[in-house]
Amino acid sequence: MEWGAPSVTHALLFSVFVIASCGLTYELVAGALASYLLGDSVTQFSTIIGTYLFAMGIGSWLSRYVVRGLIARFIQIELAVGILGGFSAPALFLIFAWAGAFRLALYLVVLIVGVLVGLEIPLVMRILKQQFAFKDLVSQVLTLDYLGALAVSLLFPILLAPHLGLSRTSLLFGLLNVLVAAWALWLFRDQLPGQRWLRGQCIAALLALCAGLVAADWLTTLAEDRLYADEILLTRTTPYQRIVVTRWKDDIRLFLNNNLQFSSRDEYRYHEALVHPGLSAVPGARRVLVLGGGDGLAVREILRYPTVERITLVDLDAEMTRLFAHHPLLTVLNDNALSSPKAHVVNADAFRWLEQNTETFDFIVVDFPDPTNYSLGKLYSNVFYRLVEKHLAVNGVAVVQTTSPLYARQSFWCIARTIASAGFNVTPYHAYVPAFGEWGFTLASRQPWPAPDHYPEGLRFVTPATVAAMLQFPPDMGPIDAEINRLNTQILVRYYEREWHQVVQQ
Predict the structure, then answer these.
(1) Are residues 406 and 485 part of one domain?
(2) pLDDT tens for residues 32-78?
(3) 400 has which bridge partners?
(4) What is the dihedral of CA 474, 480, 483, 489, to 10 degrees?
(5) Do 257 and 213 share a domain, yes or no?
(6) Which residues are catalytic, by number?
(7) Are 465 and 405 members of one domain?
(8) pLDDT single digits (tens) 315-326
(9) Domain count, the chain
(10) What is the pLDDT of residue 125?
(11) Which residue in 134, 205, 263, 461 is deepest, having the highest Cβ count within 10 Å?
(12) For residue 434, what is the domain's CATH number?
């Protein structure tokens, strides 16, 4: 096919759209993977995007030294991006699980992929420069580049990450890069010396990525079998988190983004301590709100109270609530609580839901994961607790999961003081949960909390005597200075990172 024909020109322009999509995909995969494994999504995405853009700048600068065989070099760069970017997610999973030095590998991959992607667009523009005036060339190439980025930015959270997973997504877009290389090889077949060698490279890359797609689940399982000591029963990747459920003998465990959420052997201690000291202090409670708690275990405990007429559970992740409403292994744990006619599940962001809703509740449970990142940290802010206060009935009580007062002492008292800053009387307490160690909670009410003198029958942990003990804090868990967690500063996330990092180091 003659160089300069409209079909060749259009094919190259379409390639710009594809390679822009691929480049942003690798960036998003790296950011999501780092957030799953390291936490603190704002820091991970910020540093990865910065490194990637810096590397693209280096690649663009280096493109000036590519002076011969532009089409052949473009094909080889596409193959390199396809292989490295395509295998980035499964390789990084395996490195995290088996080799250590994950951060070094992560930023090295981002840096190299960024340099290669930075080389692509300048080479395409130089190949096309004879077909367009400079102003038209720049406008068309950059327009398609930005359109490709837009397409992926919409598809990644809606379709790619939740349905394909990170490994399959990176491998699929690696395959697209290689197909662009193969397409360019065919388009310019009459002008390329050493065509057989390039064709062999394309075939090898295509076979490697196809094999990777076939083995994607096996590669992910190989990494997760190393991360989790017990048998993995199910895994799900959602737009919000990585869900993993494991089993050892009769112990079922839930992990979100590699963080343990409960062990079926002792979760009753956590959930009885979370629910009953507060709900038993509200005689005749009828309407209950649960924020978070998509596993339905808190709802199970609330259903022990016959006066409760309606339980509204607001959890962001629809896949989480679906699993715990329908999966037979998990519904056994929550006694089919989410299928109760009293339970109403809403999949929404709790912050926005509180802003838009006008209902009031006799009892509110705030049971979010620990503030490992700023997205979660906002749910521990003074602004959020003021919203909770607006939805609490006059004589109502709220309870907040407040992390460990032993391992994250300053974080615990930061949360308690932030709740108090929203106008609540606060009653902090703690309980020992073997899977976690000492764990903390905070009761919030307009009037001082009245300690109940009786609880529902059938509880295995909570009694008036154990609750009295929960209110006592030894010196190593007692109050210390902590700032209020404000939405614009989120000091809590920094407290939490520092304290748990010290625990890991020990």
Answers:
(1) yes
(2) 888 777 766 677 888 999 999 999 999 999 999 988 888 899 899 99
(3) 366, 442
(4) -70
(5) no
(6) 367
(7) yes
(8) 999 999 999 999
(9) 3
(10) 84
(11) 205
(12) 3.40.50.150
